[in-house]
Amino acid sequence: MTEAQANIGVVGLAAMGASLSRNLARHGNTVAVYNRHYSRTETLIGEHGDEGKFVPAKTLQEFVGSLTRPRTAIIMVKAGEPTDQMIDDLADLMEPGDIIVDAGNAYFKDTIRREKAIRARGLHFVGCGVSGGEEGALLGPSMMPGGTDESWQTLGPILKTIAAQAEGEPCVTHIGSDGAGHFVKMVHNGIEYSDMQVIAESYDLMRRGLGMEPGQIADVFDEWNQGDLNSYLVQITAEVLHHIDAATGKPFIDIVTDQAGMKGTGTWTVQTALDLAVPVTGIGEAVFARGLSSSPELRKEAEQKGLSGPEPQAILSDLAADPDQRKAFIEDVRQALYASKIVAYAQGFNEMQEGADVYGWKLDMGAIARIWRGGCIIRAKFLNRISDAYASGDEFGSLLFDPFFKKAVEDAQDAWRRVVVRATQAGIPIPVFASSLSYYDGLRSKRLPAALIQGQRDLFGAHTYGRVDQPGVFHTLWAGDKSEIRQD
């Protein structure tokens, strides 16, 4: 029998799993490690075995036997069927009270299903979102674990040893029961999609609209990163744009194909928002923008068919030629970017709140904002402001109603509108800039044209409507004498 000596174990030693194992070992944990192909275990121990205490296992039985009770195993394997199989294999070897942690990007409804099944066997199942990529897993990620309060008592102290630190606080907290952790990580990734897309739109406006070179645009992002837009994504945008391709000597950005991939979490965010009837327009447009970028044949056909439109630099030549006007337009883009980022976060937090209501979770929005301040991809300066907003005790339905963010968007909206107008005139696509502004305008509208849609629905499908002057549900006899009848 293998001696039980490891307080935590990791199954799956590809890039993320290996990095997480090393992080755990570096911070005083004794880490059991197992991979289906033992060669990866040997590589980890051979290259990094001196970084801490590892207990390598050749079989899953050895792995489980090396864990102290309650046995706690983190799985980092391919999503889908491989995850289900590994959960079952571990559960067969474990005993009541033991803990299985899925730290991959699982769909939260799968996590709800898995937690229910594992709970019935007397075990704990934790779906844990991990943000920060391979570097974060090694140096300190932001983590979003779900699961029971009992599992958090065991897992929490371990995760706090390896989490990123922000202002002296570990970037991990117990999110809520069953699928809450993976739900919050899903929305985090949706916000990330919107954030990345609107940054790309800002780059496009300066590159195609003003004719600026990548290095010049990189300098702009470097400057923006010193102010309100201070964030990881703005920081790395400057780094990417400064980079020169060694093989060609050209700017790196110019030798990369313009087809952005995606692994599903952004799509899940939008699909879930549709199920919850929560508008996440910025996130949705970011997902669709990636879809369009990944349709090269369709775009090539559009070029061949000669779809006409304005030439960006011809339309914006007045701005490009005049240094003062160009500087003013770049400042407008900065403000539009800031406002659109606020909308993305507001929409994401609305989705999380609605998800909490529907699935019975008690999500601490301020705590979620705090654990996103370090380690994760969307870490940004204004997450402190979001945390403060939720800690204020004020009741508000959207971050856009919080005094700080309300003023920030109001101060930026003239610039935001100028950017949307000029980009549209120049034929530069700005799906997130434009949809975020439309969302803001829809939110502040006293009356929307949905009244007409209600009339249309009632005419063709007898779907009924409400009246502004009295309660109840009504239907007009459109095919008859057009008299109105009450349906409730």
TrEMBL record:
Q: What is the uppermost EC class here?
A: oxidoreductase
Keyword list (alphabetical) reads: Gluconate utilization, NADP, Oxidoreductase, Pentose shunt
Gene Ontology biological-process annotations = D-gluconate metabolic process; pentose-phosphate shunt
Instruction: Provide any one GO MF term from the record.
Output: phosphogluconate dehydrogenase (decarboxylating) activity
Q: Give the reactions, separated by semicolons, that this protein catalyses.
A: 6-phospho-D-gluconate + NADP(+) = D-ribulose 5-phosphate + CO2 + NADPH
Q: Which catalytic residues are annotated?
A: K185, E192
- Enumerate the spans annotated as 6-phosphogluconate dehydrogenase C-terminal domain: 181-479
UniProt binding sites for substrate: N105, S131, G132, G133, H188, N189, Y193, K263, R290, R457, H463
Could you confirm whether the keyword Secreted appears in this record?
no
Keyword Calcium on entry: no
Tell me the pathway. Answer: Carbohydrate degradation; pentose phosphate pathway; D-ribulose 5-phosphate from D-glucose 6-phosphate (oxidative stage): step 3/3
Q: What is its EC number?
A: 1.1.1.44
Function description: Catalyzes the oxidative decarboxylation of 6-phosphogluconate to ribulose 5-phosphate and CO(2), with concomitant reduction of NADP to NADPH.
Oligomeric state and interaction partners are given as: Homodimer.
Entry's family note: Belongs to the 6-phosphogluconate dehydrogenase family.
Q: What is this protein called?
A: 6-phosphogluconate dehydrogenase, decarboxylating
